[in-house]
Amino acid sequence: GESVGLHLPTLSVQEGDNSIINCAYSNSASDYFIWYKQESGKGPQFIIDIRSNMDKRQGQRVTVLLNKTVKHLSLQIAATQPGDSAVYFCAENRGGDFGNEKLTFGTGTRLTIIP
Amino acid sequence: NAGVTQTPKFRILKIGQSMTLQCTQDMNHNYMYWYRQDPGMGLKLIYYSVGAGITDKGEVPNGYNVSRSTTEDFPLRLELAAPSQTSVYFCASSTMGGGYGYTFGSGTRLTVV
Q1: Whole-angstrom Cα distance, residue B104 to residue B113?
Q2: Beta bridge partners of B109
Q3: One-character DSSP codes across B25-93
Q4: Å from A106 to nearest chain B CA?
Q5: What is the domain count for chain A?
Q6: Are β-strands A109-114 and A10-14 bridged in parallel, bridged antiparallel, or unpaired?
Q7: Which range marks the domain in which residue A12 is found?
Q8: Is B49 part of any domain?
Q9: Domains contained in chain B, number
Q10: Nearest to B106 among A9, A42, A103 (CB)
Q11: pLDDT tens, A79-104?
């Protein structure tokens, strides 16, 4: 069935190193993707998004890459800091009538930054 | 701005009891959503609303009801609570659908025993 999934449920990275979190999607009609960060006890927080007509988008210390050929999305975090420790979700908009599109979320990857 | 406010933060219910999870936003967003998050799982959409007076079912609506009498408020009602409804519930709002600009509340952790 269609799904948004993550390759790795957990990831540990040394402070200062770069981290890469991956996400696979299976619906080729999806046209909008978002990465969220969720800290313990809090709601998801928007990090960065990308539309399907782009293959790369950069923010502050974060970059999202979209490979539509293999239906793969990744989030790169540069120079990781202790505050980056959280669960990261990808989400896709699978399309629909305008105004009624809904997001489908992946299961999340827990990123732990090692001091 | 307070953003999206959810109350209560924690609640323990007995099987068969009912309760209302409150959600209010002060950003004048038309779109509001209720999600549940089970351990190790992604968020699942329960109900959503595209404006006052309009609600629709999401992926997992059974056992829940919603209403949207005002732009600000989108309460989620649990009738006859069951252990399967033990979860963390998140409310979100946005100016438009499709995932654009969602703002999430901090969640309500519900345990049904």
Answers
A1: 27
A2: B10, B88
A3: ESS--SEEEEEEE-TTS-EEEEEEEEETTEEEE-S--TTEEE--SSSSB--EEE-S--GGG-EEEEEEE
A4: 5
A5: 1
A6: parallel
A7: 4-114
A8: yes
A9: 1
A10: A42
A11: 999 999 999 999 998 765 555 567 88
Please give the pLDDT value at position A36.
94
Would the CB atoms of B41 and A107 count as touching at under 8 Å? yes
Nearest residue in B to A47, CA atom: B101
Separation CA B113–CA B111 (nearest Å): 6
Interchain CB distance below 8 Å, A93 and B99: yes
CATH code at B70? Answer: 2.60.40.10
CA distance B58 to chain A (A): 9
Nearest CA in chain B to A34: B99
**Cβ within 8 Å, pair B45-A102:** yes
The range of the structural domain enclosing residue B59 comes to 27-96
Task: Let me know: does B76 contact B20? Beta carbons within 8 Å.
Answer: yes
Q: Tell me if B79 is assigned to some domain.
A: yes
Residue B35 included in any domain:
yes
pLDDT tens readout for residues B17-39:
999 999 999 999 999 999 999 98
Q: How far is residue B61 from each of residues B22, B65, B109, measured CA to CA in Å?
A: 17, 8, 18
